Amino acid sequence: MLDKLKQIADRSEQRLAQVSSIDEINELKVKILGRKGEITQLLRGLKDLNAQERVSVGKIANELKARLEDTINRRTEEIKNQELQLRLEKEKVDITLPGLPWQRGGKHPLTLVNEEIRDIFIVMGFSVAEGPEIESDYYNFEALNIPRDHPAREMQDSFYISDDILLRTHTSPVQVRTMEKLAPQTPVKIIVPGRVYRRDDDATHSPMFNQVEGLVIDKNITFGHLKGTLMLFVHKIFGEDVKVRYRPSFFPFTEPSVEMDISCVNCKGTGCRVCSHTGWLEILGAGMVNPRVLQYGGYDPEEVTGFAFGMGVERIAMLKYGINDLRLFFDNDKRFLKQF
Fold it and tell me: Going by CATH, does the domain composed of 109-337 fall within 3.30.930.10?
């Protein structure tokens, strides 16, 4: 039995020296020292030996098992180190290679234009006012001289939440809210940037878009002040060579009301597809504040006058950057956005 034990031990150590993976070691360990291993099976014959032989053989068997376990543990550590070294070699990073550049984001074109519009009017002494996007029918329509049955409501096809609550269709409600807050204080000079909502969706309209409206109220405000303010704005944002004209129009909250056109920024007024060969582009609506709107806001139209204007930020951005489809602003296409 001792000879067989030594043979198993010697053979096992030779095989351990040749293994190349942890799986092979575990398999060999089970085959030699497991419950059905060679040494375990051999030691079951101890019961057939006399007492003296069992003590002698048992002692030697335990020494051989301890030696094999030590060899197995040592080989396991060696193979783990070898595998780690191979993985490190395989995953080695060449620090001499140039690094990958960080891609920096940029502002959305609508954000750029919105900030530019704000800056122009802030320099002219305007302050920025804001209001809720979920608005009451009173502030969105009635306080702006658009009663419930007035046909002017058809100009703004709306998203109603209830009979009296809707998503605002313009930023004009903030004008009334501001007047109520400040009346009878003068002067009032505000711009109102923000998102508005209408049920439109095509190449030139979106269900959600951005507006900037302006309001000035003071004593002796005239249409000349309106023209001068808008002329300065247009020259700042489109250039000094842009021409301006005004066309009579209708808005329930202003009287008189006008549409403001500028000479085509694409053809310089000679006529092209962008301006439908007219040489002019409409950019905003404006007018003198209707006396009834002043009264709703808490001002006496006999004491003060004012003017108001409103423009779509998307419209200004499309003209400024030569963009022909409004939907590009909302598609999140990096090929489009990275140009700005």
Answer: yes
Quick one: tokens of 277? 């060969």
Q: Give the CA radius of gyration of the chain.
A: 42
Q: pLDDT band for position 14 (50/70/90)?
A: confident
CA distances from 167 to 34, 154, 160 (A): 77, 15, 6
Closest by Cα among 272, 252, 253, 254 to 322? 272
Task: Determine phi and psi for 287, rounding to 5 degrees.
Answer: 165, 175
Distance from C-alpha of 236 to C-alpha of 188, rounded to nearest angstrom: 23
List the domain boundaries for the chain: 2-90, 109-337
Q: What is the pLDDT of residue 73?
A: 82
pLDDT over 90 at 92, yes or no: no
| Distance (Å, whole) CA 169 – CA 177 | 15
Q: In angstroms, rounded to a whole number, what is the distance separating the alpha carbons of residues 15 and 208?
A: 76
Cis peptide before 193 (omega within 30 of 0): no
| Cα-based angle 25, 29, 30 (whole degrees, multiple of 5) | 120
Cα dihedral 224→228→230→233 (10° resolution): -170
Q: What pTM did the predictor assign?
A: 0.68
What span, in angstroms and rounded, lies between the C-alpha atoms of 212 and 216?
14
Q: Which ranges of the chain does DSSP label H, i.e. alpha helix?
A: 2-18, 22-33, 38-43, 51-90, 109-123, 137-140, 173-182, 223-238, 291-296, 313-321, 334-337
- pLDDT tens digits for 226-249? 999 999 999 999 999 999 999 999
Instruction: Report which of 232, 233, 230, 235 is spatially closest to residue 246, judged by C-alpha positions.
Output: 230
Q: In angstroms, what CA-CA distances link 277 with 197, 269, 280, 325?
A: 31, 9, 8, 19
> How far apart are the C-alpha atoms of 323 and 192, rounded to whole Å?
24
CB 172 within 8 A of CB 213: yes
188-197 and 208-218 strand pairing: antiparallel
25's CB contacts (< 8 A; 6+ apart) are 16, 19, 72, 75, 76, 79
